[in-house]
Amino acid sequence: MAILVTGATGNVGRLVVDELLRAAAPYVRALTVNPTRAALPQGVDVAKGYVGRPESLDGVFDGIDTVYLAPVPAVAREVAVLARDAGVSRFVTLTGGPGTEWHGIEADVEASGLDCTHLEPGEFMANATIFAEQIRTTGRVLGAYPTAANAPVALEDIAAVAARTLLDDSHTGRTYELTGPESLTHPRIVHEIGRALGRDVPFVEVPRGEAETVLADAMGEYGGWYLDGRAALVDHPQVPTTAVGVVLGRPATTFAQWADANVDLFR
């Protein structure tokens, strides 16, 4: 089986490469804009290109059976047709649930007639780093919507699920909503970061406008969009799924485990 990982230096794609190598995948090709700077591991066939520029993909799909597709909605349909015409038989896509800007990738890829597995992760645990500067400089976190709750998922779990589904075609035709094992509020998340640091880190509720101003340092123009999502979670908290455990045969990573492993990001 020959597998192509697009977006191979992205926050998920790079981990997918590692997971495939750990699983002794027979052939892995990694697509990246700058092969030299990417410094991908030995044993990986590195190809130059960017999935968001289909004109750069000439020859990239040759000899490939299965593709991990990084989420670039604008070109998903075109890329799927190029892959199909080159002999690719199956895609594993990283998308988003209904209502997100990435969800349309699923229908676009399916329109090509390719077999598909779709992965719909929720918020990444790594997004908690938006609080890192506040924690480092003030020892607290200012935010809004303290009762909003969702079930963030570890990037490592997403990558492990992607690798498993790339290597096992029994997942064809399935869509997996990937979450962590617990629905958590921001005060709880901040508490766990403080626990990992060995000190109390309070979450202080502030008005929406002030929270958006604070987030601007970490998220720029996306701070308001992020807070809109938090507001929706007040009345409709995300319910954790069991998909990570079902696919991997092990429990999903808890936020406490993630905080312990990444505590240096907040020091």
Descriptive labels:
Rossmann fold, alpha/beta, 16% strand, 267 residues
How many structural units, i.e. domains? Answer: 2
Which of globular, elongated, flat, extended, rod-shaped describes the shape?
elongated
CATH-derived architecture of the largest domain: 3-Layer(aba) Sandwich
CATH class identity of the largest domain? Alpha Beta
Order of helices and strands: EHEHEEHEHEHEEHEEHEHHHH
Share of residues in helices: 25-40%
Overall SS class: alpha/beta
User: What integer is the average pLDDT?
Assistant: 96
CATH topology category name of the largest domain: Rossmann fold
Low-confidence runs: none
Number of strands: 11
Q: Assembly type of the shown chains?
A: single chain
Proportion of strand residues:
15-25%
**Widest sheet: strand order?**
3-2-1-4-5-6-9
Q: Kindly report how far apart the N and C termini lie.
A: 43 Å
Gyration radius (Cα, Å) is 19 Å
Count of alpha and pi helical runs: 11
Biggest β-sheet strands, sense, barrel: 7 strands, parallel
Give an overview in words.
There is one protein chain. The chain has 267 residues and is of the alpha/beta class. The protein has two domains: 2-121, NAD(P)-binding Rossmann-like Domain (Rossmann fold, 3-Layer(aba) Sandwich); 125-152 and 181-266, 3-Layer(aba) Sandwich (Rossmann fold). It is 38% helix and 16% strand. The chain contains eleven helices and eleven strands. A seven-stranded parallel β-sheet has the order 3-2-1-4-5-6-9, with helices on both faces. It has a two-stranded parallel sheet with strand order 7-11. Helix 3 runs parallel beside helix 4. It is elongated. The relative contact order is 0.13. The model has no long low-confidence stretch (mean pLDDT 96).
